[in-house]
């Protein structure tokens, strides 16, 4: 080791440092350690000039790595400079994952990641060693310093990097080495009450206290949960600080740590002061300013102690960034970008338009990553390679927490992308494997299905790591092992195909947000007749009259008993292009009758295509009506499947992706850029943004990208996101409020005598019944909270951060819709309550309602197919004859084939699962999230209200009169039941769009 003799010292303590090395490297005898580029982008002599200056220049990698520390050089002197010490640690941390062996040097950079086992052992045995070495080298005692001055006790809760990332277990060893070699974590408190008299600024700022070294204070270390450690601290109190309102932290360790909280037990004159941090603190060299954390008292900007205001503003400037450059892992910058990262312009198959930034293709903004543009199109951002895709930038504190990673969520998503998808692509070109019968499909859940044979599948089995294969492909080498049986076929394997269940899922399934009351008959189109000709419905009274339970059309319309699931206008403009691909589908309209027992029945399905000669000639439509026997019954079944295919597309692209995931991201970005962590609205909303940027970034890499899983598995194919952007044109923020949405769809009318002020058109509409309970609970909570901080409308108008936030949401985040007249104001306390309630509703309950039912209902593909490869057979064709003879086979040949079904089931199984660190509505990550007692009480009240709602839901699900709550498939409606266990439960409302 360079210069200081540490290597010799460690060796004399009997430490075999080569045992720390877990990577694989070639034999290293041809590569110059300092001069060649071999372990990072620059040569080590450029990266570490201070070390190079005192090092033997001509050594090879083998010389250094073979004898690890000895090989780093010869002693030149006994004291290292601070820079040398710092560089040394950094260099060591890079090298501990590299191991020379007898492979050729051309394989130098082949590394392995399996450091977990060794790291645990190493971690404990090295601690004592480093303490001893520290004493030896620096004469330093690790005993706590004694002091006669005022002392304050406290606690720091943090997680070391190694606890969070099982690819980097060496970090803790290096950190301990650093502590002993004089590199520390230091903290400086900032006074909320005493000004910095030495500051040259005109406005006052809080005095910054003396730097104190965290490690010097530590008296005990106790693990709290897996990974978290509490450090009890006792330190000399700097009396000039008075009340600490914030602290600066400087990390001189080589690796980052996750700082959770810091609590001071008894600050003289002030008692307990709590800082909630929940943030990654990287080594100081990555930051231009020291990291700052504020005490957990919320203040409106104008009420913030004047001495803290400059710090509050500077922190927001840091988070906004400067709008340029590529953002790196440690960055914390929240900024906006267009969806220009989905395409690969060099490949015609994967070229797509930029989504967002134009009136033709408007879209919400995503988080900026700053990756360089592609060479062929400077407006398209380059994509990461498949291998690097998990490293896509999101602001550091937005990345998935460790538990989620250890639940293999990220790995599963990656596996889908890296291994399964290319193989599915290969199979596409080969023979398409069909399910031969519904019995075959059932075998997915019983373990009896044989894998389709062929090279590609063999390759899947060989390529996917064994851990992932178990989760994903579930093969024991013979057949696919079991997927869990989706709820929709658990009680009865065929009830899904009944008309009653088909209709019920529009009220209580995974997409209960599209059905509308039909107010005029026949249904009309809003498409421009000049472009699309006559697109009004061709359904007439004679099609449906015999299904109206003895009534007539006029009466059922008047009695609010006729409903429609209308996807005609959404898909028709794209139908010609979609059907020019391998997809063969229709734009559909479904009419439903509300029966006397409160259930719906489908009475007509209209299947429409563009006129083959010209769009202007209008739609060519076919009307199918219910039939029980013969080929008509089979045609009716196929018609329902086309509706389910349309509904699956709308569900995934619109109800789920666009209306929750994509629309929330601008709020996440604007909140972090414009509202300080001290702002009460930041504290209110922050839990509802957890993991959203991360899952959306993963979605851009894997799911919605050109050639991604969505394009592969949904009938909309390459037009998926483009189509989604057309529908965003009609998105309106205030209409996302559940009561407004129900009214707009005719599913409720205002009625002050009804609960929540609304009377439902279909009384037993489970999504609406439970949704209104949850909506009202959220609204009451938000009202209780906001009225504590905003005493009058002036306090809203004068809140500069709130005003900037709302302006930015409108003008930047949802900038393509900034001129829409529907944008609500932010001028009154009521505006704050209304707007925040909508945001929380979208992020929590709306997302849960459309997300966690995916596996329960669509885990069985015949119930919710996602694509079709054939149109309805016409009479006098061989296909028509086949339909008569083997209807099940024709059905399966029409909907998603086997491999796409597997891909789709695998994906929705991942997306429908709760991880073990999920935080549900009414819960907070940290009980001390605010020190304001009234909001804490209101939050407790909110939690109790949600418990009451759970009891009510349980009771309603047992009430057999409420037929829509369980239906013929006997699946109770639990998608808005607030709490849940982990896994595939079909219930639970997480706080945020997190999966
Ligand atoms: Fe989701």
TrEMBL record:
It holds the Pfam family Lipoxygenase. GO terms for biological process: fatty acid biosynthetic process; lipid oxidation; oxylipin biosynthetic process. Keywords: Dioxygenase, Fatty acid biosynthesis, Fatty acid metabolism, Iron, Lipid biosynthesis, Lipid metabolism, Metal-binding, Oxidoreductase, Oxylipin biosynthesis. SMART domains: LH2. Belongs to the lipoxygenase family. Residues 298-995 form the Lipoxygenase domain. The lineage of its organism: Eukaryota, Viridiplantae, Streptophyta, Embryophyta, Tracheophyta. Its EC number is 1.13.11.-. Its cofactor is Fe cation. It comes from the Eukaryota. Pathway: Lipid metabolism; oxylipin biosynthesis. Gene3D superfamilies: 3.10.450.60, Lipoxygenase-1, Domain 2 (4.10.375.10), Lipoxygenase-1, Domain 3 (4.10.372.10), Lipoxygenase-1, Domain 5 (1.20.245.10), PLAT/LH2 domain (2.60.60.20). Plant lipoxygenase may be involved in a number of diverse aspects of plant physiology including growth and development, pest resistance, and senescence or responses to wounding. It comes from Tagetes erecta. One of its GO terms (molecular function) is metal ion binding. This is Lipoxygenase. CDD domains: PLAT_LH2. InterPro entries: LipOase, LipOase_C, LipOase_C_sf, LipOase_CS, LipOase_Fe_BS, LipOase_plant, Lipoxy_PLAT/LH2, Lipoxygenase_dom_3. Residues 350-379 are annotated as: Disordered.
């Amino acid at each position: 080791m360079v210069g200081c003799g540490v290597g010799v010292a460690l060796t004399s303590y009997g430490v075999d440092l080569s045992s720390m090395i877990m990577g694989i490297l070639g034999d290293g005898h041809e590569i110059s350690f300092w001069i060649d580029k071999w372990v990072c982008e620059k040569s080590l002599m450029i990266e570490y000039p201070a070390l190079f200056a005192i090092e033997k220049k001509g050594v090879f990698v083998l010389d250094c790595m073979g004898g690890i520390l000895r090989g780093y050089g010869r002693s030149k002197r006994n004291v290292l400079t601070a820079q040398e010490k710092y560089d040394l640690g950094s260099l060591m941390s890079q090298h501990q994952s590299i191991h020379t062996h007898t492979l050729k040097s051309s394989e130098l950079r082949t590394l392995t990641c399996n450091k977990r086992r060794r790291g645990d052992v190493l971690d404990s045995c090295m601690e004592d060693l480093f303490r001893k070495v520290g004493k030896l080298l620096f004469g330093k005692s690790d005993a706590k310093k004694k002091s006669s001055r005022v002392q304050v006790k406290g606690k720091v809760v943090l997680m070391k990097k190694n606890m969070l990332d099982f690819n980097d277990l060496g970090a803790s060893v290096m950190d301990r080495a650093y502590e002993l070699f004089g590199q520390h974590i230091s903290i400086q408190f900032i006074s909320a009450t005493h000004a910095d008299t030495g500051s040259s600024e005109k406005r006052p700022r809080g005095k910054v206290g003396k730097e104190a070294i965290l490690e010097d204070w530590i008296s005990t270390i106790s693990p709290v949960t897996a990974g978290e450690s509490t450090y009890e601290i006792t330190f000399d109190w700097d009396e000039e600080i008075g009340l600490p309102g914030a602290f600066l932290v400087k990390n001189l360790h080589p690796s980052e740590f996750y700082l959770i909280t810091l609590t001071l037990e008894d600050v003289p004159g002030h008692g307990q002061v709590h800082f909630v941090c929940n943030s990654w603190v990287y080594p100081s060299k990555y930051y231009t300013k020291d990291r700052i954390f504020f005490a957990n008292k919320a203040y409106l900007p104008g009420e913030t102690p004047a001495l803290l205001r400059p710090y509050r503003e500077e922190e927001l400037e840091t988070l906004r960034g400067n709008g340029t450059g590529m953002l790196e892992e440690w960055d914390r910058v929240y900024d906006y970008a267009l969806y220009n990262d989905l395409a690969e312009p060099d490949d015609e198959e994967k070229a797509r338009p930029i989504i967002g930034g134009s009136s033709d293709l408007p879209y919400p903004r995503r988080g900026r990553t700053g990756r360089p543009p592609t060479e062929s199109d400077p407006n398209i951002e380059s994509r990461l390679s498949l291998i690097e895709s998990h490293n896509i930038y999101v602001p550091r504190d937005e990345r998935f927490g460790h538990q989620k990673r250890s639940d293999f969520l990220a790995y599963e998503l990656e596996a889908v992308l890296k291994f399964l998808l290319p193989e599915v692509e290969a199979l596409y070109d080969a023979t398409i494997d069909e399910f031969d019968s519904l019995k075959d499909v059932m075998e997915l859940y019983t373990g009896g299905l044989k894998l389709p044979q062929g090279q590609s599948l063999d390759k899947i089995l060989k390529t996917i790591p064994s851990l992932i294969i178990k989760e994903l492909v579930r093969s024991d080498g013979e057949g696919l092992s079991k997927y869990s049986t989706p709820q929709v076929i658990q009680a009865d394997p065929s009830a899904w195909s009944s008309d009653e269940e088909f209709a019920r899922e529009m009220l209580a399934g995974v997409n209960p947000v599209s059905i509308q009351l039909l107010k005029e008959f026949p249904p009309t189109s809003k498409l421009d007749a000049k472009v699309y000709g006559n697109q009004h419905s061709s359904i007439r009274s004679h099609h449906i009259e015999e299904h109206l339970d003895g009534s007539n059309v006029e009466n059922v319309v008047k009695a609010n008993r006729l409903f429609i699931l209308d996807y005609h206008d959404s898909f028709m403009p794209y139908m010609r292009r979609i059907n020019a691909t391998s997809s063969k589908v229709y734009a559909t309209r479904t009419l439903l009758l509300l029966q006397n027992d409160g259930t719906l029945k489908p009475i007509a399905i209209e299947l429409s295509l563009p006129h083959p000669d010209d769009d202007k000639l209008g739609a060519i439509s076919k009307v199918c009506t219910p039939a029980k026997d013969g080929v008509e019954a089979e045609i009716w079944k196929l018609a329902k499947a086309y509706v389910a295919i349309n509904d699956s597309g709308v569900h995934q692209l619109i109800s789920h992706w666009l209306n929750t995931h994509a629309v929330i991201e601008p709020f996440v970005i604007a909140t972090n850029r414009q509202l300080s962590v001290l702002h009460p609205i930041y504290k209110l909303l922050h839990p509802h943004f957890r993991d959203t940027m991360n899952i959306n970034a993963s979605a851009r890499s894997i799911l919605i990208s050109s050639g991604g899983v969505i394009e592969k598995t949904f009938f909309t194919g390459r037009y998926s996101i483009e189509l989604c952007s057309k529908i965003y044109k009609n998105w309106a923020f205030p209409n996302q409020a559940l009561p407004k949405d129900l009214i707009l769809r005719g599913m409720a009318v205002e009625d002050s005598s009804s609960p929540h002020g609304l009377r439902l058109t279909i009384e037993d509409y489970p999504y609406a019944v439970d949704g209104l309970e949850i909506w009202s609970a959220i609204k009451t909570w938000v009202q209780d909270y906001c009225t504590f901080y905003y005493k009058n409308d002036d306090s809203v108008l004068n809140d500069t951060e709130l005003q900037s936030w709302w302006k930015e949401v409108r003008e930047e985040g949802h900038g393509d819709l900034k001129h829409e007249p529907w944008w609500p104001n932010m001028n009154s306390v009521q505006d704050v309550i209304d707007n925040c309630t909508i945001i929380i509703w979208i992020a929590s309950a709306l997302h849960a309602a459309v997300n966690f039912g995916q596996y329960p209902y669509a885990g069985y593909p015949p119930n919710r197919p996602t694509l079709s490869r054939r149109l309805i057979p016409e009479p006098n064709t061989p296909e028509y004859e086949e339909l008569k003879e083997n209807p099940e086979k024709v059905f399966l040949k029409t909907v998603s084939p086997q491999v796409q079904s597997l891909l789709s089931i695998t994906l929705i199984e991942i997306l429908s699962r709760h991880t073990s660190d999920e935080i549900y509505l009414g819960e907070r990550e940290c009980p001390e999230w605010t020190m304001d007692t009234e909001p804490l009480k209101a939050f407790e009240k909110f939690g109790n209200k949600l418990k009451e709602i759970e009891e009510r839901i349980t009771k309603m699900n047992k009430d057999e009169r409420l037929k829509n709550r369980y239906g013929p498939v006997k699946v109770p409606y639990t998608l808005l039941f607030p709490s849940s266990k982990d896994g595939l439960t079909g219930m639970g409302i997480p706080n945020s769009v997190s999966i």
